[in-house]
Design a protein that fits this description.
With 183 residues, the chain is of the alpha/beta class. It has helices at residues 12-23, 67-74, 107-113, 137-149, 157-171, 175-182; strands spanning 2-6, 28-32, 43-47, 50-55, 58-62, 83-87, 96-101, 122-125. The relative contact order is 0.22.
Length: 183
């Protein structure tokens, strides 16, 4: 199952929560260009220009290669993983595109989402507003704590609720079942 998470903002609370939930459901590949995710690695190796960071049953692949090239360079294929999560890359054929929206679209967001209809993406408003997920010092502190301890968790009950619902919708598993599986 392939999921894209897009947004030019601090997506850590969403990404960490998504990775935490998916790791309990199967093997996960997280594809990113962001080196900061390497901090969770229990082991790191580089193969053909792809930095592979291992955290439990999650492989964090850090590279500028596009996914097919990246998998080939790293010696994997899409069948090696139950979940492939893309950071700021779009897989239009994937199960979900999650757009973390903080207001006006940036140029990068516009480029990535230009050919995706609003019906084909899940928009999570992040920041201010009545239906927005709110970032606060507790959520930031929770993310910092996860990084310090190298321990992925659900960033907040509000964010967890949104991500559980998305995973439930695409897997067909009830939210209650997912919550029991995760903790």
């Amino acid at each position: 199952m392939q999921i894209s998470i897009v947004g030019e903002c601090d997506k850590r609370p969403f990404t960490y929560t998504l990775l935490d939930i998916c790791q309990f459901l199967g093997d996960v590949l997280f594809v990113t260009e962001d080196e900061s995710y390497a901090q969770f690695a229990e082991e790191i190796e580089t193969q053909n220009g792809v930095k592979l960071c291992y955290y439990g049953n999650i492989v964090i692949a850090i590279s500028k290669y596009k996914t097919d090239d990246l998998l080939h360079q790293a010696g994997y294929d899409t069948k090696s993983f139950d979940y492939i999560i893309y950071d700021n890359q779009i897989d239009a054929s994937g199960a979900a595109i999650i757009y973390i929206c903080t207001g006006e679209m940036s140029d990068l967001e516009n480029d990535l989402l230009a050919f995706i209809s609003e019906n084909d993406m899940i928009v999570i408003n992040y920041g201010q507003g009545r239906h927005a997920v709110h970032m606060n010092s507790k959520v930031e502190a929770r993310c910092d704590e996860m990084e310090e301890r190298k321990d992925l968790r659900i960033a907040s009950s509000e964010i967890g609720g949104r991500i559980f619902k998305i995973i439930s919708d695409i897997t067909g598993l009830p939210v209650k079942t997912l919550k029991k599986a995760v903790r």
